[in-house]
Specification:
heterodimer, A: 433 residues, alpha+beta, Cytochrome-c3 Hydrogenase, chain B, 4-stranded mixed sheet, 14 helices, 17 strands, B: 173 residues, alpha/beta, Rossmann fold, 6-stranded mixed sheet, 6 strands, 21% strand
Chain lengths: 433, 173
């Protein structure tokens, strides 16, 4: 749509390749960017209210509905929080099954983003469909990778979208060992395909950019972080227990957005692949660390445009981890631990494909939810996205309208924003006056 | 012939859940059919419809027609029979039309593909359909069932109108 103000108005189509909907406005006065506003509407606030008065066992099912792309993240963060209140620790094999399920979600989400949403930006296509006509084999590889992730989610979670087999304390039923073993050849193929993916995206022309934000992710406990109870940052050597998340991550209203904007110890911060990678590089499986080095990545990566390479390294990590878990799998003694509700406050955190997802619940003595807090990764990244877009737009001010628009859209997609947890119509507008 | 009914949408986003609701009702009426629900990424349909001869996809649409209207679009001989269905209308990552276009580019379409759309109003947060859309569910179920057995059909929504012919649809929203 065209909108006229003083001077020239650049029209930018809706960002179809960002999940969900939202609004981004870039205002330019002459040769200077004077405003960048990401406006999203956050459903977690709705779900927080919706959860009050519900039973302790309901958050995994209810919160999984927030996002069709990362339901497992919501299930895991909520389960971990409730389990902390109830004093439940999972059997090692149950924990491994959860990690396997989560790997499925990473594989599905990362493959989708790399192949169908982000790669077209680098190869000059409007989208994955146009790219598929010229790069059929590559897109088929991406879809097959995604399918492997989906099948893992179905096998462990019961259904690829909104898995229904997850419960507080574990699972309703265990997957058949034979079915898990049958996935081994698929994961062996996926590991090779993921390695090829890293090589493929490493060949893209990556715009240069240095993000000026702090990095925040879960700390890995001997393995690349997916679920955990400690947080590490680039701002401080201190390790933060997730119970102290809200002391550091402060959300506040800003005039231009319905969503809360978060800061970490008053600074702009980033969660997601770049943060996980840079803070936990030493915990990558050797094959992924070697692939990262071969792709030209150092131990830290602060270029959001290179996130497609980091995401590919994480895709390889997830495939490698899933294969390891499948090969080492021993059935747990029971599908779930016994959970007895009690009053208290619990915190849960996990690494959704887009970054750290924090949940906090307060239960009364009957196990009913008194209060719920959900902090999704995209809302944490809003401030960093705005700051980056400001810099990218300023650096590209000499580009023509179409090129600058494309660069801004690509910049937003660097973060794989999950705004369907979120909003209506991501409509990017550049306004020149 | 193998037939599959796919309900696309998120039941936690009001009228966006109409696809899954309709598909569920069709499944209850026709237990012989394969019926699945897809929320989030519509490209997953490419895996689901592998091997199916006839696929009916039910989705929420916004074309400008009266809320609750039902209509269908058919893919025939390499293209849409008339104007295509609208692009992404709600919170799906990749919309139905985009997924179909991708499948076409990869030669992964079923022999017959029909999209049944229900005109929606409220894509806000929360469960449950708005009244006019809830009233249209039975019409949409009937249209899906008719599609499975015949070749064409359009039903008006409550207080709505029938388009001149099935391909006579509004452009993308």
């Amino acid at each position: 749509m065209m909108r006229e103000t003083r001077g020239r108005v650049l029209d930018v189509a809706a960002l179809a390749r960002v999940e969900g909907e939202g609004a981004m406005r870039v205002r330019i006065d002459g040769d200077t960017v004077v405003g960048v506003e990401l406006d999203i509407y956050e459903p977690p606030r709705f779900f927080e209210a919706f959860l009050r008065g519900r039973g302790y066992e309901e958050p995994p099912d209810i919160t999984a509905r927030i996002c069709g792309i990362c339901p497992v993240a919501y299930q895991m963060s909520s389960s971990l929080a409730i389990e902390q209140i109830c004093g439940v620790t999972l059997d090692q094999q149950l924990a491994a099954l959860r990690r396997l399920l989560y790997c499925g979600e990473w594989i599905e989400s990362h493959a989708l983003h790399i192949y169908l949403l982000h790669a077209p930006d680098f190869l000059g296509y409007d989208g994955g469909i146009a790219m598929a006509r010229d790069h059929r084999d590559v897109v088929e590889r991406g879809l097959r990778l995604k399918q492997v992730g989906n099948r893992l989610m179905e096998l462990v979670g019961g259904r690829a979208v909104h898995p229904v087999n997850v419960r507080v304390g574990g699972f309703y039923r265990l997957p058949e060992p034979d079915a898990l073993r049958a996935m081994v050849p698929d994961l062996e193929w996926a590991c090779g395909a993921a390695l090829d993916t890293v090589s493929w995206v490493a060949g893209f022309e990556i715009p240069d950019h240095h993000g000026e934000w702090d990095l925040v992710s879960l700390a890995g406990d001997g393995e690349y972080p997916i679920m955990g109870r400690r947080i590490v940052t680039s701002a401080s050597p201190d390790v933060v227990p997730i119970e102290e998340f809200s002391m550091h991550a402060v959300e506040e209203h800003v005039p231009h957005s319905n969503a809360l904007h978060a800061s970490w110890d008053s600074g702009t911060y980033l969660v997601g692949p770049l943060a996980r990678y840079s803070l936990n590089h030493h915990l990558l499986p050797p094959v992924a660390r070697e692939a990262a080095a071969a792709a030209g990545l150092g131990a830290e990566c602060r270029n959001p445009f290179a996130s497609i390479v980091v995401r590919a390294v994480e895709l390889l990590t997830a495939c490698t981890e899933a294969l390891r878990i499948l090969r080492e799998y021993q059935p747990p003694r029971a599908p779930a631990e016994t959970v007895v509700p009690r009053a208290g406050i619990g915190h849960g955190a996990s690494e959704a494909p887009r970054g750290l997802l924090y949940h906090r619940y307060e239960l009364d003595e009957r196990g009913q939810i008194v209060a719920a807090t959900i902090v999704p990764p995209t809302s944490q990244n809003q401030r960093a996205i705005e700051r980056d877009l400001w810099q990218v737009a300023q650096a590209g001010i000499a580009l023509d309208d179409a090129a600058l628009t494309a660069r801004c859209e690509q910049s937003i997609r660097n973060y794989d924003p999950c705004i369907s947890c979120a909003t209506h119509d991501l409509d990017l507008r550049i306004v020149r006056t | 012939m193998t037939a599959l009914v796919v309900g696309v949408g998120n039941r936690a986003r009001r009228d966006d859940g109409v696809g899954p609701v309709v598909a569920e009702r069709v499944g209850a009426a026709r237990p012989d059919l394969d019926v699945v629900e897809v929320s989030g990424d519509a490209t997953r349909m490419l895996d689901l419809w592998a091997g199916a001869d006839l696929v009916v996809v039910v989705d929420a649409v916004r074309t400008g027609d009266p809320v609750g209207s039902c209509r269908r679009w058919s893919w025939r001989e390499g293209g849409w029979d008339g104007a295509p269905p609208p692009s992404q209308v709600s919170s799906h990552l990749v919309g139905v039309r985009e997924a179909v276009d991708l499948a076409a580019a990869l030669d992964r379409l079923p022999a017959t593909l029909v999209v049944v759309g229900v005109e929606v109003a409220d894509l806000g947060l929360g469960p449950g359909l708005s009244p006019l859309v809830a009233d249209a569910v039975e019409d949409a179920v009937a249209l899906v069932v008719a599609t499975l057995g015949t070749a064409s059909g359009v039903c008006p929504g409550p207080g709505g109108r029938s388009p001149a012919h099935p391909g006579d649809v509004a452009g993308p929203v």
